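# step 3/5: fold
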Amino acid sequence: MEYDGSRYSGWQEQKNAPKTVMGALREAIESTLGAQAEMQGAGRTDAGVHALAQVLHIKANPKRNLSPAQIVDAANDALGHDIVVLAMEEVPERFHARHHAESRRYLYRISLRKNAFAKRHVWWVREQLNEVAMREAAAMLPGRHDFSAFHANDPARPDESPIVVVESARLDRVGEELQFRIEASHFLWRMVRRIVGALVKVGSGEFPLADFAAALDGDVRYQDAISRWTAPAAGLYLESVRYPADLASAIKPRRMPGANPAKRATARVLPPAKRRGAVPKRSGLPSRKDVWRPGNSRS
């Protein structure tokens, strides 16, 4: 699906933000199916962020017998102009849009001139930018880095590791735009927008390449400055989500109770006294050391 996130408080449904992309989609899908649905997207885009190819899964017991194409048409009729379901297909029951995704790719559009039609979809940067320096900085991004200086603390994931492996990153000149693309298995909260803001500061000469490289190594001395440079949400797009080529084989089958052959083998080989949790038989009264008394325990 694709959407213009300008009017929405992000993708994820929230109690204090009723107007979300997922909330609008849920209303349309459940109305179409005549049943409640479980839904999950591949990525949580923030308020004002767009998507060119968001992926989600829907699980439901529909009361109407509709084909995927009919569901797409009915949902699009119920949705506003800025959310579009592009395609739908049946997948294995255990498919999960977020867990089975191998990578996500984001696009950020920087306009080099004032644009009368694209204000909500680009970031207009007025300064003259050194594109060569920006490309050098972007070339440092692929690989494993500590992005502590480039992300905001996520209340929903307080213990999330700042280590991210970036698969690819590049900056291209397209007409009067600079288009930055970055792909990784996952991203930290506001990480992409802060990277873009730092790249622009590199281009303006305010953030030397050596300092950018130090920040990529986890130097948190730059965190406050980078947070102030966070690029606007308007220019950011979830561009694509990549899944395994053989999706069916990548989805693990549901394990049935007692289906672990290793545990069965252990139970057969070990005598009863050696099995986990087994209590050896004793005869007679317990000895003094077998009786728990206050002060005998160690912590």
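# step 4/5: annotate
The domain at 2-84 is CATH 3.30.70.580 (Alpha-Beta Plaits).
# step 5/5: archive (pending)
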